[in-house]
Amino acid sequence: MKLINAIESITRWSGWLGAVLIFPLIGALVFEVFSRYLLGRPTLWAFEVSYMVMGAIFMLGMSNALRVRQHVSVDIVSMQLSERVKAIINAIGYFLFLPLLIWLVWELSAYALQAFETNERSGRSAWNPVVWPIYTVWFVGFLFLALQVLAELIRSVMTALGQKQVEEGGS
Length: 171
Description:
Layout: H1 2-20, H2 22-38, H3 46-67, H4 83-118, H5 132-160
Helix pairs in contact: 1-3, 1-5, 2-3, 3-5, 4-5
């Protein structure tokens, strides 16, 4: 289905971006260790950069983890069920989860916009950076997760209705 494929191309890209962010995280931490222990001058920014980049990695990876079915699940019972029954159970779960995600995305968009408009700062270090970029990443991460949940809901409903489909997740 084209909608599922479009959503999964977005979540694949999001997961790739989250994975690539490991390099600036490593760079910031290595520089901090070098600066602190070899130069005797710790940075003002490494702590803030490290938790913000790690948060971005997590947020951007959530939807891709769902796409490739890497979230934690207990399969003891579901292994005994038919594909159609599993699809019905999954559809119910996704149907209940999606409105909560939509509400969360809405609130996070307002939170990021307010932080931008007020020039909100972190208050966690002497560097004290603006926080709207990380709040925006939270919004985008949960938006992509909501889109992937929608794709999984559609896929589950199609399976529950007995419609043949090509498995897209996991690639």
